[in-house]
Amino acid sequence: MGFDFQHMMELWPDISKAFGETLYMIGVSLAIAIVIGLPLGIVLFVTDKGLFLQNRFVKSVLGFVVNMIRSIPFIILLVALIPLTKMLVDSTIGPAAASVSLSVAAIPFFARIVETSLREIDKGVIEAAVACGATPWMIIKDVLLPEAKAGIVQGITITIISLVAYSAMAGVVGGGGIGDLAIRFGYYRYDNTIMIVTVVILIVLVQILQQLGDWTSKAIDKR
Amino acid sequence: MISITNLTKDYKTKKGTVTGVDNVSLTVNEGEVFGIVGYSGAGKSSLLRCMNLLERPTSGEIRVDGLDLTKLKGERLRQARLKIGMIFQHFYLISQKTVGENVGFALKAAKLPKDQIAKRVDELLEMVGLTDKRDVYPAQLSGGQKQRVGIARALANNPSVLLCDEATSALDPNTTLSILRLLKKINRELNITIVLITHEMNVVKEICDRMAVMQDGRVIEEGDVYDLFSDPKAELTKEFISSVVSFDVPQPILAACTGSVIKVQFKGAVAGEGIITDTVQHFDVKGNFLHGSIEYIQEKPLGLFLMEIQGRPDNIHRAVTYMEGRGATVEVISNGI
């Protein structure tokens, strides 16, 4: 069974609904990843040895938690977080439910990316700010974030694209979205048309996101 | 202005403890330009960075403007740092902020209201000659211009002290000179005490009043720049000075000399008195210059000449004694054949 245009058109309402669900899952979990992951990444960085808020205890506890979550395979995290999901959204299927596990996975991922971007900043620039008598908050707001913003935007791009891949996996537990469609039709029913359409949609989506991310990152960099 | 007592800074490395600064005591007077010279690894940078507590000393005391920095922490240390400006070899400007914003950053640290920040930024940029660059990003500036921004930032909160960490080492000779002139102007007009570290003796010669030479974490010689230039005691000091006033005469030339070769040094006003002319006229000797220069240190001349003197040995001896009597320092390098 090859590509069947007629069949694709028949299922088009399902495809567009699934696409909407994918965007919803990515949007929600990205927003949560940024809101929690950005401060977390900053804390991981500034509590490091030799920096202005050096704190070994905080650094090692947070570092351990981040590593722990990141080392759990996403498919297992999906299942393991079912109780939490039920508690938060009162359901274990659908895009809202899938967003919970996606967020939990994306937060430490993004936090590490933020930490790495901050590490790229010349330590001298931070030191010069300390020598100016700046407060820690000023250094974060006026030195760290502006200096790392191009890298952080790149990091957001990487996070979104990883979320596209993870959201497809969410289909396994009935999470909805393009990935769910691909699994239900393409995988279980050998429906090649749907398989091809979903894969093409994902490819196009990732390409567009990457281009957009690269362009934004470049546009805001003053170096 | 700055008084350092028994300052030691140890660094813990994998191979054990390394002493960066070893029991240094030093006083920098108000209004002077103080230079610390030494090769890399001598501990001069660590010492300077202790002066605003970017590095906390292992032991010892640092008083800046009467305040013992080592006793300060958090907010009070931050307040103290507002009054200690610092500039760096690699400038360390915020690359994503404009020149004006970079300078304004220091004023924001002092919690100045917005309208006053704008006014003061303009003042500072005018002082360093960058009025037209206010809205430009650092990437579009030359090295010298970046350092001027660094200076404007360091002076934002009217500090009493300016620390310069190899501030001209990344600049070409012409730019170095213009930055040094700016520093001197700041020192004189704003009465800001300057401490600078460098490995370039030219910098010291150009603007310093007093200097210290560091080796292996210790200060091995300290004093008035003119005195140290004219009469260095330590080997290392001599080595540094010879990088500015060097007397390398090609060997074949020296070998061809038939008379005595002497090195004559004149200090201060003596350099202008024509001693050599008098000597040659009074005694039956002939003088032949091999090398010579007059350096101006703190606007006082320091003359150094290498010359060959031909004549009868007793006349040469009398000529040398005469020059010494007139205040010159004479060193006989080789006697005539």
Task: Describe the structure in your own words.
The complex is a heterodimer of chains A (223) and B (337). With 223 residues, chain A is an all-alpha fold. Chain A contains ten helices and no strands. In chain A, helix 8 packs antiparallel against helix 10 and helix 9 packs antiparallel against helix 10. The longest helix of chain A is centred in the first third of the chain and has 35 residues. The termini of chain A are far apart. The model of chain A has no long low-confidence stretch (mean pLDDT 91). Chain B has 337 residues and is α/β, with parallel strands linked by helices. Chain B has twelve helices and 14 strands. In chain B, helix 3 packs parallel to helix 5, helix 4 packs across helix 5 and helix 5 packs parallel to helix 6. Chain B is elongated, with a radius of gyration of 24 Å. The mean pLDDT of chain B is 90. Classes of the chains: A mainly alpha (223), B alpha/beta (337). Chains A and B meet through helix 7 and helix 8 of A and helix 2, strand 6 and helix 3 of B.
Supply Rg of chain A: 20 Å
Q: Total strand count of chain B, please?
A: 14
Q: Strand percentage of chain A, roughly?
A: under 5%
Return residue spans of chain A where pLDDT drops below 50 for at least 5 consecutive residues.
none
The N- to C-terminal Cα distance of chain A equals 54 Å
Q: What does the radius of gyration of chain B come to?
A: 24 Å
> Most extensive interface, residues per chain?
A-B, 21 and 28 residues
Morphology of chain B: elongated
What summary fits the major beta sheet of chain B?
6 strands, mixed
Distance between the termini of chain B: 56 Å
Oligomeric category: heterodimer
Task: Give the gist of this structure.
The complex is a heterodimer of chains A (223) and B (337). Chain A has 223 residues and is an all-alpha fold. Chain A has helices at 5-10, 12-46, 56-71, 74-80, 82-89, 95-119, 123-131, 136-169, 178-187, 192-220.
